[in-house]
UniProtKB/TrEMBL annotation:
Subunit structure: P1 and P2 exist as dimers at the large ribosomal subunit.
Cell membrane keyword on record: no
GO BP annotations, alphabetical order: cytoplasmic translational elongation
Origin species: Papaver somniferum (Opium poppy)
Positions of the UniProt region annotated as Disordered: 62-113
Name listed for the protein in its UniProt record: Uncharacterized protein
Superkingdom classification of source: Eukaryota
Record field: compositional bias (Basic and acidic residues): 90-99
Length: 113
């Protein structure tokens, strides 16, 4: 995933055809290690293809994948970005934790017992 992210950062930065050395440079700048075989695999898969078309076809494929929750998929399909879905999941976890903490406040007995 980090190899893909580095590739996309390079494309976003204006490099329309990043090389293996470019990707290694980005990953090395943040102290991440990289596997040369994964870099070469990515470069062979995207060679001669437009990145925006690849992303669009990937979104179409993801839209057809069934999921348990409708809200995160709707956000991803509408192009809202991937940061919204984890934030929603994190908020749900926080709500569950708060409910549990509130029930622990009664200390095991009720006022009317």
């Amino acid at each position: 995933m980090k190899v893909i992210a580095a590739y996309l950062l390079l494309v976003l930065g204006g490099n329309t055809a990043p090389t293996a050395e470019d990707i290694k440079g980005v990953l090395g700048s943040v102290g991440a290690d990289c596997d040369d075989s994964r870099i070469e695999l990515l470069l062979t898969q995207v060679k001669g293809k437009d990145i925006t078309e690849l992303i669009a076809s990937g979104r179409e494929k993801l839209a057809s994948v069934p999921s348990g929750g409708g809200a995160p998929m709707a956000v991803a399909a509408s192009g809202g970005g991937s940061a919204a879905a984890p934030a929603a999941a994190e908020q749900k976890k926080e709500e569950k934790v708060e409910e549990k903490e509130e029930s622990d406040d009664d200390m095991g007995f009720s006022l009317f017992d």
